Description:
Elements: H1 16-24, H2 26-33, H3 37-48, H4 53-68, H5 90-102
Helix pairs in contact: 1-4, 2-4, 3-4
Amino acid sequence: MVKEQLLGGTVHPMAADLRKALESVPAARAAWQTLTPLARNEWVCWVVTVRQADTRKNHVERTIAELQEGKRRPCCWLGCIHRTDKPMSASVKWALSKQSKSK
């Protein structure tokens, strides 16, 4: 039996660590395959945009757990700021301005 290829997002290709985790948990993989390209993109972006290795590992683990729980998008996250196919919303601009001032 040949497994269906795991797809990335609209902007972000599939991250290797996320791919490995999805391939090792059939329920998470099955949930992943039902996501829209935009939803997959948000999960991948949520994983790859963190700076610390420990945080990234946590995001991969949470992605697997949350997909198994039925979640379709990362919770409490602004969304992919790398998309060029749409303008950034006012709420995302506001949140990003607050983040940059707090650093």
